Amino acid sequence: MYSGSGFSDWEIGDITVIIHKGVYHLFHLIIPNHDYIAHATSKDGISWKRVNNALFVGNPGEWDDDMLWTMHVCEVEGKFEMYYTGLQRKDRGVVSRVGFAQSNDLIDWEKNKKEIFPIESHGKYYESAESNPRKWLSFRDPFRFEHNGEVYLLICARSIAGPVSRRGCVGLVKITQDVVEHLPPLLYPRMYDDIECPCVFELNDRYYLIGSIREDIKVRYWFAPEFMGEYHSFHDDVLLPQGNYAARTVQDGPHLLIVNFFYVGKIDALRVLPPPKELSTDDKGRLVLKSYYRWKKMVVKTLASGNLNTTKALLSNPTAFLNVESDKLTCGSRSGYEIFYFEKPSGQFYLGRNHYRGGNGKTGVGVRHG
């Protein structure tokens, strides 16, 4: 897994991925300095190699001379656009704005000097620098989305009204021929301090909106029949469990992939970029995660359960049971705890087929490295 590690193990920050001519391009922040946006490439979305850095903080006095935050990269009419978040030193880094850069090849980037950038909050629908009880302003993490020929930016913003710790919303900006229009929030659940790294996509005749929640370090989602419709949530709205963050989607041919970084425990722990996962829906329209399609393309040999190395019980629990058949392995424990294990069958492998849990107990699968 890619980590981007240098001086520390947790340098990788918020990400975006774009696929061009069969090559995966990853752009990500560098934590904690936020002084440039890194760029790595891959042929399979799993093994990455760093290339030239994409963008650096501005020179002293420029609007982005302090830090660079979350970005989104997309292809538009044969060229590439990057919408990114910038902070300025004279604001003490507490006001976030959205800037714009362009590239012909995804390697060399030039910041755009259009008068509409940077885009900032003016306070009609969202908190602004003048109306901001937290004393630091969220108007950041842009995501470009084109709908019916119109260009929109989804923004991590905060409503102008409501409980101070619950104003987090997905703001919406419309750009028409270099004119910026601030629209009402696309989503305002009145539950979170911020909805970070928002992203929207259409799948199986529904629109889905995802966002990363800082309070519990999870990725949650909402759905609507139309892009500008009323977004609802299922009783279980967690798309990616705790530790997964800054998720964004990318279309890979017929496969809709979701990519994010992951960290364990505290925020300054090891951060890695896991392999992508694929998005689908069940019969009720709930989002479902599927294994990355490229894993199957890498298989050189398949072992049935009956051909695995000897499976053993570690704790010798007398209430535990284990039955190994040619095409099925069944294990469990009626009382207490047991761990079943076997030596890994290969230097690189993945567990395929189906996994079923019977009864009301708890179970899990673990892999020991080394």
Description:
The structure is a single chain. This protein has 1 helix and 26 strands. With 370 residues, the protein is mainly β. Strands 1, 2, 3, 4 and 5 form a 5-stranded antiparallel beta sheet that branches. Strands 18, 19, 20, 21 and 22 form a 5-stranded antiparallel beta sheet that branches. It starts with 11 loop residues before the first strand and ends in a 29-residue tail after the last strand. The relative contact order is 0.10.
Secondary-structure map:
Elements: E1 12-20, E2 23-30, E3 36-42, E4 49-50, E5 55-56, E6 67-76, E7 79-87, E8 96-103, E9 109-111, E10 140-147, E11 150-158, E12 168-176, E13 179-187, E14 196-203, E15 206-213, E16 218-224, E17 238-240, E18 244-252, E19 255-263, E20 271-272, E21 277-281, E22 287-290, H1 294-297, E23 312-313, E24 320-324, E25 329-333, E26 340-341
Which descriptors would you attach to this protein?
370 residues, Tachylectin-2, Chain A, 2 domains, single chain, 26 strands, 5-stranded antiparallel beta sheet, mainly beta
What is the N-to-C succession of helices and strands? EEEEEEEEEEEEEEEEEEEEEEHEEEE
Output mean pLDDT. Answer: 93
The largest β sheet comes out as: 5 strands, antiparallel
What is the CATH class of the largest domain? Answer: Mainly Beta
Number of helices: 1
Q: What can be said about this structure in brief?
A:
It is built from one helix and 26 strands. It has 370 residues and is mainly beta. Strands 1, 2, 3, 4 and 5 form a five-stranded antiparallel beta sheet that branches. Strands 18, 19, 20, 21 and 22 form a five-stranded antiparallel beta sheet that branches. A four-stranded antiparallel beta sheet has the order 6-7-8-9, with no helix packed on it.
